């Protein structure tokens, strides 16, 4: 992971931030919105088919001009998922108001500009347009839905949640993030089709269906009564479809649910050192303490008590 940071208090140091943005993404022009102290930070990593970054900074205006376009080799789709603040994205005669949780697309081969009037933070995905077009299909006429807000509660919002979670996991478990990132471009293709008013098909559709199932499971995994049939009904798919979507996972969907519950338990064990193990088991979705111990050892190679001891020791250092 590459990390770059700058603090600006003058026009000269703000130019350093402009250079940093241009090197990280594409050539850009940046104008400060006030004369006060400024802070900007970018954390960036490469995944199969796309780059993923988190960026946070103070108020500014970011412009992609025809001069900058002429200096760029290659064309990219940029996707921003706002996590803090709000902003206005202008491109192709449209203006998108973007708030935390929302997602928006923009095409680096044409001018655009961002108005960000207060401190803000984003998760940004950058993929070559050629790679995206391959996923959409060589005969696809799907227009890029630039400067169209994709809200968190829409079908495309599932994709925004995926990349937001992926950026978080990248910090704590890079290896796990690399595995998850394999479906990233397919999910982007699905989100583009949805925002354009089309229905995803083929691999992008399957990637979206899989992520919708995972998103539902994350919200309900702590329910001990949750069953495969419950998941199928809630996600409007058949049991056969569920098994097919997760056919590449050893032990299938049951293993995915078990790992989610173990991850929930890990968080509770580290956060609440005094909480009884039986209580943690129930709060994580396990029907019994015995089942919890067996699943926890299977996934982590240690008992809940051993994990808690290590987590508590790490926090006390």
Rg is: 22 Å
Proper CATH architecture of the largest domain:
Sandwich
SS-derived structural category: alpha+beta
C-alpha end-to-end distance: 25 Å
Low-confidence segments: none
Question: How many helices in DSSP terms?
Answer: 13
As for the number of domains, it is 2
CATH superfamily of the largest domain: Jelly Rolls
Number of strands: 11
CATH fold-level topology of the largest domain: Jelly Rolls
Order of helices and strands: EHEEEEHEEEEEEHHHHHHHHHHH
Query: What fraction of residues sit in β-strands?
Result: 15-25%
Please describe what this structure looks like:
It is built from 13 helices and 11 strands. It has 2 domains: 2-198, Jelly Rolls; 262-316, Homeodomain-like (Arc Repressor Mutant, subunit A, Orthogonal Bundle). The chain is of the alpha+beta class and 317 residues long. The chain has helices at residues 11-24, 66-70, 129-136, 157-172, 174-180, 184-195, 202-220, 228-234, 239-245, 252-271, 277-283, 289-300, 304-316; strands at residues 2-8, 29-32, 38-47, 50-57, 60-64, 76-84, 87-91, 94-98, 103-107, 112-116, 120-128. The chain is globular, with a radius of gyration of 22 Å. Strand 7 (87-91) and strand 8 (94-98) form a beta hairpin. 46% of the residues lie in helices and 23% in strands. Strands 1-3-4-11-6-9 form a 6-stranded antiparallel sheet, with helices on both faces. Strands 2-5-10-7-8 form a 5-stranded antiparallel sheet.
Question: Topology, please?
Answer:
Blueprint: E1 2-8, H1 11-24, E2 29-32, E3 38-47, E4 50-57, E5 60-64, H2 66-70, E6 76-84, E7 87-91, E8 94-98, E9 103-107, E10 112-116, E11 120-128, H3 129-136, H4 157-172, H5 174-180, H6 184-195, H7 202-220, H8 228-234, H9 239-245, H10 252-271, H11 277-283, H12 289-300, H13 304-316
Antiparallel strand pairs: 1-3, 2-5, 3-4, 4-11, 5-10, 6-9, 6-11, 7-8, 7-10
Helix pairs in contact: 3-6, 4-5, 4-6, 4-7, 6-7, 10-11, 10-12, 10-13
């Amino acid at each position: 992971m590459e990390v770059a940071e700058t603090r600006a208090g003058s026009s000269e140091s703000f130019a350093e931030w402009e250079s940093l943005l241009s090197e990280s993404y594409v050539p850009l022009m940046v104008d400060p919105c006030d004369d006060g102290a400024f802070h900007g930070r970018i954390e960036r990593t490469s995944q199969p088919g796309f780059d993923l970054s988190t960026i946070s900074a103070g108020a500014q205006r970011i412009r992609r001009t025809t001069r900058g376009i002429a200096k760029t080799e290659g064309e990219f789709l940029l996707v921003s998922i706002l996590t803090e603040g709000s902003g206005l994205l202008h491109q192709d005669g449209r203006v998108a108001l973007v708030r935390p949780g929302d997602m928006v697309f923009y095409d680096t081969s044409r001018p655009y500009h961002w108005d960000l009037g207060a401190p803000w933070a984003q998760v940004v995905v950058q993929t070559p347009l050629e790679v995206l077009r391959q996923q959409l299909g060589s005969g696809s006429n799907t227009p890029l839905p630039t400067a169209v807000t994709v809200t968190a509660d829409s079908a495309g919002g599932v994709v925004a949640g995926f990349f937001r979670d992926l950026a978080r996991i990248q910090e704590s478990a890079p290896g796990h993030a690399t595995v998850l990132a394999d479906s990233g471009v397919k999910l982007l293709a699905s989100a583009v089709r949805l925002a354009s008013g089309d229905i995803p098909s083929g691999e992008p559709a399957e990637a979206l269906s899989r992520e919708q199932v995972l998103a539902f499971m994350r919200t309900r995994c702590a329910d001990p009564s949750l069953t495969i049939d419950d998941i199928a009904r809630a996600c409007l798919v058949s049991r056969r479809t569920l098994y097919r979507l997760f056919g590449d996972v050893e032990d299938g969907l049951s293993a995915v649910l078990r790992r989610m519950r173990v991850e929930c338990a890990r968080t509770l064990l580290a956060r609440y050192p005094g909480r009884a193990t039986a209580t943690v088991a129930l709060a994580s979705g396990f029907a019994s303490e015995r089942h919890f111990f067996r699943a926890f050892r299977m996934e982590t190679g240690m008992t809940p008590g051993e994990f808690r001891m290590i987590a508590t020791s790490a926090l006390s250092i």
